[in-house]
Design a protein that fits this description.
Elements: E1 2-7, H1 13-28, E2 33-38, H2 39-43, H3 45-61, H4 63-75, H5 77-89, H6 91-101, E3 105-108, H7 111-123, E4 130-133, E5 150-152, H8 156-164, E6 172-173, H9 189-195, E7 203-207, H10 216-224, E8 231-235, H11 240-250, E9 257-260, H12 266-272, E10 275-278, H13 282-290, E11 295-297, H14 304-315, E12 318-320, H15 327-336, H16 338-351, H17 356-372
Parallel strand pairs: 1-2, 1-3, 3-4, 4-5, 5-6, 7-8, 7-10, 8-9, 10-11, 11-12
GO molecular function: hexosyltransferase activity
InterPro entries: Diacylglyc_glucosyltr_N, Glyco_trans_28_C, Glycosyltransf_28_UgtP
GO cellular component, one term: membrane
Length: 383
Amino acid sequence: MNVLFLSISLGSGHIRAAEALQKFVVQKYPKSKTLIVDTFKYINPLIHTVVVDGYLNIVKYVPEIYGGLYRMSEHIKNIDRMSRGFSNLLTPKIHRLIQSFKPSIIVCTHPFPLQMIAHLKKHYNLDVPSIAIVTDFVNHPFWFQNNIEAYIVAHDYIKRDMIECGISEDRIFTYGLPVAPEFLKSIPKEQARKELSLENTLTVLLMGGSLGIGDIENTFKSFAKCKRDIQIIAVAGKNTALKKRLDSLAASFPMPVKIFGYTDSIPMLMDASDFIVTKPGAMTISEALVKRLPALIISPIPGQEERNEQFLVNSGTAVRIYKNTKIDSVLCQVYDNKLRYKQMKEIAGNLANPDSGRNILSLIEKLVNDNEKGLFKYSFNAF
């Protein structure tokens, strides 16, 4: 089985979804060929730099502009057409890659490469079954392609929304985002804290994804003002400047603090924690849900992350905190209230999809087998 993953590194979540599913494929099919492609970087490094750096600068310095563009793209069809047109212009190199790699199936974890695959199916008779993994807790028109065999979404409400938008129900699967196998293994909280040389007390895990994005520093300071026994685990990711600032601040903090840069120990850090404090990126949240870890949400990127936040808060497993929020008051409401905290953990468990990777792999097997039997006619029309 040859599996081609097409993604884009706008943040780390899209690539991480591909990497997580890749691990399940390789575990079951060790002789399989798998390839994860950062699509824009593969097609043209300059385009990748312009798009990715532009995106990161906008969300960092003028996030309200990104939010406005996101909301416009949901309702103004010309923006969707422009996105499709841009993607279509970039298809030739991906087409050559597909002809060379000869995938049994294509998995897209970002809508831009998905648009390319839909274009190749319509205009170049591409007959490879394809799956889209919607990497947020919200739907968006950029994902709408009716010549894609399957959509993986995180929740039934997204499925209902997609059906209303014209995607046929039999192609939408509420399997959830795939999380890496290491997140499916847990150890007792006390053991995790001992292995990390932490105290056995109320613990919060503060992180901003692999890029260390969000108001991490001010949130760090806010937790330092707590008048209770608490310890902080902070993960700066690849943001080395942030790590240096946190290390400097931590020296004067009255409570135990553990600072990490980029680390592969996130599963254990989650096991050791009572809360995760993070921006609501869908992959980080999906991993926390599997760990039944309630979330305190900070710094959502306007657009999809604001929608993710709304979903999590409305579901009851998260609380939004702001720059001037009194952390002691929040913890009094959601941690000291044992019934509330228990419910947040239970809701997290109910929203989690620990079997997502295995379920998606089973679907891949079925689609590949059906295609080999000639059961697909590939007669879809593009939106």
